[in-house]
Prior knowledge:
- Chain A is elongated and about 105 Å long.
- Chain A is 55% helix and 12% strand.
- The longest helix of chain A is centred in the last third of the chain and has 38 residues, at 298-335.
- In chain A, β8, α10 and β9 (272-276) form a beta-alpha-beta unit.
- Chain A has helices spanning 15-20, 25-38, 65-76, 92-103, 114-128, 134-153, 163-171, 190-201, 214-224, 257-266, 298-335, 339-360, 367-397, 402-416, 418-426; strands at residues 4-9, 40-47, 51-58, 87-90, 182-186, 206-210, 227-228, 243-246, 272-276, 293-297.
- Chain A has 15 helices and 10 strands.
- Chain A has a 6-stranded parallel beta sheet. Chain A has a 4-stranded antiparallel beta sheet with strand order 2-3-1-4, with helices on both faces.
- In chain A, α4 packs across α6 (134-153) and α7 (163-171) crosses α11.
- Chain A is of the alpha/beta class.
- By secondary structure, chain B is an all-alpha fold.
- Chain B folds into 2 domains: 1-119; 121-274, no CATH class.
- Helix content of chain B is 77%, strand content 0%.
- The longest helix of chain B is centred in the middle third of the chain and has 35 residues, at 127-161.
- Chain A binds chain B through residues 170, 172-177, 268-271, 288, 291-292, 294, 296, 299-300, 303-304, 307, and chain B through 156, 160-161, 163, 165, 169, 173-177, 180, 238, 241-243.
Amino acid sequence: MNILAISINHRTAPIELREALHLSSDEIKSLIHHAKEELFSEGLIISTCNRTELYGIPKDQKLDVLDIQNFIFNFKNNNDVKPENFQTFASTEAIRHLFRLISGIDSLLIGDNQIYHQVKEGFQTSEEMQFAGVLMKRIFDAATKMGKRAISETEISEGAVTVSYAAVQLIEKIFSNLSKKTALIIGAGESGELAAKHLKDRGIGRLVITNRTLERAERIARALDSETIFFDTFKEKLHEFDIILSATSSDNLILTKDDIKKAMKNRNYSSMVLMDISIPRDIDPAAREIDYVFYHDIDSLNIIVEQNLSKRKFEVPRVEKIINEEIDAFISWYNSLEVAPTIKDLRDHFESIRADEVGKNKNRFSSEDQEKVEIITKRIINKILHQPTVELKKINELGTSPEETAVKVSILRDIFGINDKHEEQKE
Amino acid sequence: MSSTIIFLNILLPILYSCTFSIYTYDFWKGGKRFTNSKRVFLFLTLLLHLVYLLYRTVFFNHPPITNVFEIFTILAFSISFSYFILELVTDIRGTGPFIIIISIIFQIISSLFIKETPIVKDILRSNLLGIHVFSALVGYSGITVSAVYGFLYLTLYKDIKLNKFGLIFNRLPNLEVLETLSYYSAVIGFILLTCAIIIGIIWLPKAFPKIGFTDPKLIGTFTVWILYGIGILSKTFGKWRGKKVVFFSIIGFVIAILSTMFTNFLSTSFHSFY
C-alpha cells in the first residue's frame, strides 16, 4: 500500500523546531488545500504541542518523503528544521506508526489518551475538507478501533502521570466523597489552574481560589464556577478547608506549621490534606507531623507519577500485540481489494444468493423442472456479472495505480456488501 | 462419626484456603480477572460450611456449641459470612484476604481437633442458650471484622503519611471508607453483643442460681462491651474520629480474644461447659 508519513516529534527535534512547524487549525486547513492540489489524493494532518505529522496517499508514485518535508518547509517558510529532525514511514510502517500514536505508546507521557482525541480531530478536519476518501476512512476506523482496544484491554492509560493529577489521586485515597469536601487553591498559575480543573472534574463540593493578584484567581473561578478569597485574609478561614493545594511562585513559606496547627484545632482534628506542588515550597513540611494532616510535596507526588509511568511501560508489549492484530486485519482487508479475489468473491456472493433462493423454492417445481431452474438461474447470474467482470478486468489491465484500483474495488465491495460477509466469515 | 461430616471437615479448610488464594492473587495482581469468580467461590465455600453446620446439628441432635472447636467452626463461618454481606452491600472487593485468613485459622484449628461430645449436658440444649451463643458469636465476628478494617486503616494512614505508595496504597479503599467499614462492623458487633448479654442476664440466674458476677468471662465481655460502647458513642457524637476510634476497636478485639482464651483454656468459669 502506497501511504507515506513524516513526523517531527519530541524524540526527533527540540521544542524550538517543533514549535517552528506547529500548525494551527487554520494552517492545517490551508495545508490540506495545498496538499490536495500538489501531493496527495487522501491524507491526514495532526499537529499538537509535541508533534506535527503528515500522512498521505501520493498522487504520483514517484513522490517520496523528502518531497513532503520540502512541502512543509515551504509552507512554514522555515530553514532551521533539517530532514534528520523527521521520522519517515512508508506503507504498513506508516499505518503502524499511526496506530502507535493513537494508542498513546508514542507519546511523551506514555498512555496519554489526549492524543486519541487529537487524532480524531485530525480525521474530522480531513473529512470536512474532502481529504479523507475510502482508504483514509478505513484507516481511521481501524485506528480508532485500535485506540479503544488499547484503553479497554490494557492498563496503558491507568493512573496519574502528571503531578496535579497525582495530587487528586492521592486526595481520593484519603476522602471517599469529594462532593462533600471543600478545597482551597493557593496560586492561579498554570499548575494551580490544572489542579483546580482536576478537582472540579472529580466533583469537589466547594472550590475556592486565592492569589496575590485577585483578577487571575477570579478568571479561573469564573471558568470553573467557583469562589475566590482575598490572599491577605485566607489564613483566617484555613480551618474551613479539607484540601489545601498550593502552587505559587513565592520564595518564602506561605503556611507555617503553626498556621496548620491552629486550623486543625479549629476543625476538631478532622483530616486535612495539604498538597504543595510549588518549588520552592509554600507550606512548612513540618506540618506533616500533626495528626490527621496529610502533607505531600512535589517529590512525594513524583513517586506516584513514576510508579504509574513504569506500570504503563510494562503494558506497552500488550499494546504492540493489539497493534499487530489490527494491522493484520487491515492488510487482509486491503489485499481483498485486488481485482482477482474480488471477481471471485462477487461470483461466490451471487451464487450463494442464487443457491439459497433456489433451495427455498425447490419444492414448488417438479423434479424435471428443478434441473431447468438451476440452469436458468445460473445463466441469469452469469449475464448479470458479465459486464462488471469485464470492467474489473479492464481496471487491472489499464495500469491504474493500486490505490485507485483499491478505491474502485472497495466501492464495488461496499455496494454488494462483500466486505461485511468477508468479515462475518472471518469472525 | 458420619463420613460426610469427616469429608466436609477436611474439605472446609481446603476451600477456605482456595478462596483466600484467589482473593490474595487478585489483591496482588490488581487485575479484574477474578473479580466475580472469587465472590462465587466464597459463596460456595460458605454454602458448604452451612451444610456442614446443619448436618452436624441434625446428626448429633444438638447445635454445634458443645465444645470450643465447634464454636471455632461457627466463628470461621460467621466471620467470612459477615465479610461476604459487607462485600455485597459496599461492593468493596479488595479487602477479602485480610478477613478470610482469620476464618482459615479458626477452621483449621477446628478441623484438626474437633470431636464428637460424648455426653451433652442438658443446659447446652436450651434454646435461649442457642440464641445467646449465636448472637455472641456473630457479635464477636463483627468485632473481628471491625478490628481488621481498623488495622488496615492504620496501615494505610501510616503509608500515606510516610509517602509509601505500594500495594496497600494501590489496592485498599480510601481511609474514610476503611473507617466507615470498621465503625459499622463495630456497631453491628456491639448490638449483637448487647443482645447476647441481655439474654445471658435473663437466662443465667435460671440456669445457675449460685452464679458469681466476678466470673472472668463476664468481666471480659463487659469490658469489651463498655470499650465498644464508649468508642461508638464518641464517634457517633463526633468527638472522636479516625485513629482514636480505630485504636479502641483493636484494643476491644484483643481483650475479647484474651478473655476467650483465658476463660476456655486457663481459668475455671461457668462458661466452660466442656
